[in-house]
Write a structure and sequence with these properties.
This protein is mainly beta and 98 residues long. Helices cover 0% and strands 42% of the residues. It starts with 8 loop residues before the first strand and ends in a 5-residue tail after the last strand.
């Protein structure tokens, strides 16, 4: 599925990791107030300033980001969960160079 976004919005799918406690107990997502980790699937062109200048998004498709669930919009399509995140709400960009 291809997404086309507007402004500085990103379409993100979660990088699925099992949430376990140190003792091996599985935790529900709502019990864990940690940032979510996801892969960017689509990137908007950027935001427009009051002076009508375009500020391009600095992130790219495929980047792995951390973001707060509360600062995103959640949607579900074809049985998959996606998040719409504004660029300014991204907490961290993971360095993928190993």
């Amino acid at each position: 599925m291809e997404f086309i976004t507007t402004q500085d919005r990103l379409v993100v799918e979660l990088v699925k990791e099992e949430l376990k406690s140190r003792g091996g107990i599985f935790l529900l997502e709502k019990e864990v107030e940690q940032p979510l980790v996801g892969r960017i699937l689509a990137v908007g062109p950027g935001r427009v300033t009051k002076k009508k200048a375009l500020v391009p998004v600095k992130l790219a498709v495929g980047d792995i980001i951390w973001f707060n669930k509360k600062e995103s919009e959640q949607m579900q399509m074809e049985g998959k969960k996606y998040f719409i995140v504004k660029e300014r709400n991204v907490l961290l960009l993971e360095d993928q160079v190993a």
